[in-house]
Write a structure and sequence with these properties.
With 327 residues, the chain is an all-alpha fold. It has eleven helices and two strands; from the N terminus they run ααααααββααααα.
Amino acid sequence: MTISVGMWIAFVAFVLAMIALDLGVFHRKAREVTLREAAAWSGIWVVLALGFNAWIWAEWGSEAGLQFLTGYLIEKSLSVDNVFVFVMLFTFFAVPAQYQHRVLVWGILGALALRGIFIAAGAYVLERFDWVLYVFGAILIVTGLKMLRRQESHSPDQNPLIRWVRRWLPVTDRYHGERFWVRDGARWVATPLFLVLVLVEASDLVFAIDSIPAIFAVTREPFLVFTANVFAILGLRSMYFLLAGIVHRFVYLKVGLAVVLVFVGVKMMIVDLYHIPVAVSLAVVVGVITGSVLLSLRKTRGLPPLAQGLEPVPESVPIVDRGNTGR
């Protein structure tokens, strides 16, 4: 594949235009995202990703098309794990429903920048040191095995990053609309919404360590790796609003994700002995994730939807203990 600078610029311009359209037209004012709207935007992002996939297929052939599609599905599947984290954070910090969209938009912008850096670094290293592929494979296998026995995350209040932020930054004990910072006399102070944003960015950094090596097992072409990541991330916001109420029913999803990570890791480790075709990888990813979701929904049939963290709360309710705020 030969990717011109113009293609990179055009794709980045497209992404920025879509984000500007979202913020400047559809969400100029803070409001709750409805289930219908979330479903519509989820569909739009999937259609755009598949349309882009069709263009790649026509432009560079079936191999590149399968690589993008497999990478996109891997990233899309792994991003569901982010939804679990978002639900936990928004519930713990009692984030009003009308402000959750703003946190996710800025969180996704930060995620795009971070993943761009990770992908560039990964491509640079793999181009010069082939043995790093084995390191990536080992990381994925270990991560997948850990995911099989991982317990639920501890309270965000005990997160060392948040404790550090609270120690060194003054933080208000109430929300101030959708603002991350407000003026308190002669100084600027952070709001609880800023703490949530910090944790959203930190969680994506952790997820990127898993997902970036996984897609490099499918393709080493930076353009395919980056675009597959971008389409998965841009659809993550609407996916959250669509799945937040039923995400607790995906009891076997982590098992499915763990199996996918181990499979991809093994594929990396045996690359010099046997090359697993991209079509086989695609079939494994689709089969494992679909199976884990269907088994989960069957096992949890009849469970009511979650309501925590999805309903607006009065902004006058104290969120952060004044004793933990900065000085």
